[in-house]
Amino acid sequence: MAVAVTPPAGPARRVTAWHFVRLKLRVLGNNFRGQGRRIVLFVVGVLVGLWFASSGFLLLAAPGLAGESRYALLTAAFGGGLLVLGWLLLPLVFFGVDETLDPARFALLPLTRRTLVTGLYAAALVSVPVLATLLTASGLVVTAGALGGWAAALVALVGVVGGLLLCVAAARAVTSAFATMLRSRRVRDLAAALLAVVAALFGPLQIVVMAAVRRADWDRLTGAARVVGWTPFGAPWTAGLDVAEGRAWAAALKLLITALAIGALLLWWSRSLESAMVGAVSTGPARDRRGAVGGAVAQLFPGVAGWARRDRFGVLVARECRYWWRDARRRTSLITIAVVGIFVPVMVNLGGSRFASGGGDAFGEAGANSSPTLVSLSMVFVGVLASVTLANQFGFDGSAYAANVLAGVPGRLELRARMTAFSLYVVPMLVAVAVVLAVLLGHPDWLGVTAGALLAAYGSGLAINAFVSVLGAYALPETSNPFAMNTGAGVARSFFALLSMVSSAAAAVPIVVAAALLGDLWRWLALPLGLAYGLGAALLGSYLAGDVLDRRMPELLAAVTPRR
Fold this sequence. Notes:
Helix 11 crosses helix 18 and helix 12 packs parallel to helix 18. This protein is mainly alpha-helical and 564 residues long.
């Protein structure tokens, strides 16, 4: 008996942004189903976000409640500008962006670019950071209302919403653009250099700004705030204050600047988003292959691991080295280490205000006021930050870790190989940081102090992160965007990173104590003792955590396998 199929009456339903929002909420709910630990981390993240948001709300609302229009302008322009900068930088260097709805999964669907951009943009607005930012910026509405009445408060509310839209659009556009660049092997070096330069500029800029705040009077700061208020960084946040001062025309122009900036960012994002959906770009013509079997095997070992033995340990080291150089997500972590490792010790040891004020004696004064203990403390932070990258080292592999499970790779061998491959890239950067800082301080004889503290902290961090990566691993999204994070994974990442950093710093405390107690003698003992301490800690950590890994291989594979 034939069955007639009747087509649905009426036109097909048009896909709107609301469909993307509903899809994200449904995926979010499915990810939390049966995942008690993920729910707890999400709740903790919400509470922490609310605490920071409440503090920011009070800071932005205080000038209006106190009737201080000058301070209101300063907090609106500079505080709002910091919010935009935070949305630009944090996804690049730490938390990542939420990729619950991966754009690549929509590549085969008949969706226009406009529909896809508006839908993903609307879905991006449904997140905890967005709500926390909205609560923080609401303090500007209170300030504008207290200074200019309900009309100023209404304009301030429109400006806050526009500023929030600007923050999300900027974060998405920048991360998508850098993701496209870092997928291309031809421009990966250029992308790394650009990212490093852009991020490194904020350290010296912070020093200069803090020094200027100490020296400048309030009139100059007010003038600077008015200038910032006419840029996209400050325009949406200061519009309500212009209404309170009787300059409605200025508020209208600032809202127009905000709208134009949002439109330009969305246009930029749409161009890079289309490239991200296509996939990785071509890497150019392949190199000539050598016909000999030995040559083919040698090609599997990158130059940095050419010394490795052709056994199981050497193969694991070569594979990890290749991944750290070619995987965009791992490469961004190496960039972060290089950037932060340079300007954090400079800010701590070179005396921010003296360094910013210039003068030929700035470096000399900073070196005279530094001490081995202070230098060791700053080096401990850099070493700990470098090792925290391995806190979720198995998450980089994802489901590919199943090959190691099936091969029965011993846990101790696995962890030692991963530590070795990562160190081949990181240790030269740490040594460069130690040399540069010793030269800038004017104490070349402190090279042992800087290098010893760095290596000790780094080795201790490797030991701690060996346990963290085995016991607290989590899955990363299957996407070519190196800054992408699953919903709720940003909370997990920040929590485990904080746990790792605190534990690693505690493990490196003996080095700082030795620097404080031994005085000048420590300059000669720091390098050999620091190297021995770090190497011993790393070997001990791989030995003990390896046993835990042998027992938890199936659970670890399940934890790092992405859920669709």
